[in-house]
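Possible regression after last week's pipeline update?

I re-ran a chain I had predicted before the update to compare outputs. Posting the input and the new output here so someone can diff against the archived version. Not blocking, just want to make sure nothing changed silently.
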Amino acid sequence: MKVLVTGVKGQLGFDVVNELKKRGHTAVGTDIDEMDITDADSVNKAIKNIKPDGVIHCAAWTAVDLAEDKENISKVRAVNAYGTENIAKACRDLDIKMIYLSTDYVFDGQGTHFWEADETDFAPLNVYGLTKYEGECAVRENLDKYFIVRIAWVFGRNGKNFIKTMLNLGKKYDNIKVVNDQIGSPTYTFDLAKLLADMIETEKYGIYHATNEGICSWYDFACEIFKKAVEMGHTEYKNVTVEPVATAEYGVSKAKRPFNSRMSKEKLTQNGFKKLPDWQDALSRYLKEIEF
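New output (post-update):
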């Protein structure tokens, strides 16, 4: 099977390509140099030349706060909405299946319930969430053979993430403030890549949620990061204390963040897919993979 993976330089695209190759598939990774997703002609030309059996669309504008800047809004929409539409239309015209990576930010982030995969109560809080929702609409409107997979709190070997930020801060400061009223589940790209490979090998189309199992706050996540780092022998973090603070106390960010990022993954098992391992287990494995 030949699969085109967009955003190969990012955290997820990098791991997806590796997972597909492990399984003996032909994985073609692209980034802006190989295919500018905001240019319909570039997309059509690349996909026609590559002739994939499936596309896993990982490329996105993910800088949430920068997306709020007036001068960036059109750029964010060009990538997350129109870029996704370009890929969806090319897949439609060539009868190719597609996986689109979306986000819990398509919801309003309120309450304490678990968002269901087939929920229709969309109310994005920020530009990033709105443009990712617009991308979802483009996929649904143009394709029948699609998977929309919503994820949250992503971390991987390639690129920046919360874990790397915490580890870097822990080398500079003994006290770190982290919000404790935003609740969700981390997602390890290594684990997610396996699920996406499982999906593209099937025709069990639809909308899914995929994060590692278990829920926590960003504060809980940070505490576990330093705990496991010390257990691994990184004694430089032994005296680091993490202080829980409310989002309101932490300071105003340009983009509103969801308080509730809990997502139900029941639809995965209902369709024969395996849920991802617990987030603590994922964190332990990840820390062993990176240098810090």
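Follow-up from reviewer: compared with the archived run. Residues 70-94 form the longest helix (25 residues). Marking as no regression found.
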